[in-house]
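anyone else get weird line breaks when pasting these?? whatever heres mine. first is seq + tokens for prot A
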Amino acid sequence: MADEETGALWRSLHLGYTESAGHRLLHSEIAAEYEGLDAASVVVAAPEECIFLTMMALLSPGDHVVCTFPGYPLL
């Protein structure tokens, strides 16, 4: 029941890690949600990169972090 493009994606599906920057179609779909944004301007970050960037932006030397355990190991 899929269209030709989606059927081709399904037939070539690889169950493994994707490019760390995200699939080009993901960039296109995200850009389509925002007026004036093109796919080349979209930045997609992997979870560990997002956690790192968040911690660097919010924390200072001497701060303490409380998180759940067990949890995501990168925390």
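and prot B, same format (seq, then tokens)
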Amino acid sequence: MKRERIAEVSRKTAETEISVKINLDGSGKSSVNTGIPFMDHMLTLFARHGFFDLDVSARGDIEVDCHHTLEDLGIVLGDAVSKALGDKAGIRRYGNMILPMDETLVLVALDLSGRPGLYYDVTPVSELVAGFDARLFHEFFQALCSRCGMNLHIRQLASGENHHLFEAAFKGLAKALDIAVSYDPRISGPLSTKGKFD
């Protein structure tokens, strides 16, 4: 019998106050309130398409700009995924997805190796998406990788409008992560010839 992979993490700074609860073996239900409607949409579909149960509450200084909130959301979500995974024994470790969203096509590939790295080849057609700077998604993914110990490649294969581009990226991340955290009965301990991750 596998243990429950549920974690809850909170973080409070002078700029943000964020809490995240995730169940890696959920059904895709979510409750998300970040103060940034488009990010709510992205995290809701991340939960749905990854079959993660996800609760997110965030308050940040978005009257200044969305940078602190996006970055700290990545930090807290990364910490929660890492905590829920524990020693990662028995998981597939790798996941990938090439995901179409109408005219847009995005490749996402990841390795839960413990060695963080973001390799991000995404060029929005305009700086803004739903009223905020689309370039800030890089900060979210960078923080997520750093705190989760994830090696993550996101590559735009076919361009399109910004909403479709980032929806494809978040759905692709969800599907790839769902594969990577899933158990394989053939795997005993960590899937590494070193006997550990990192």
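btw re prot B: The two ends are 26 Å apart (CA to CA). The chain has one domain: 6-181.
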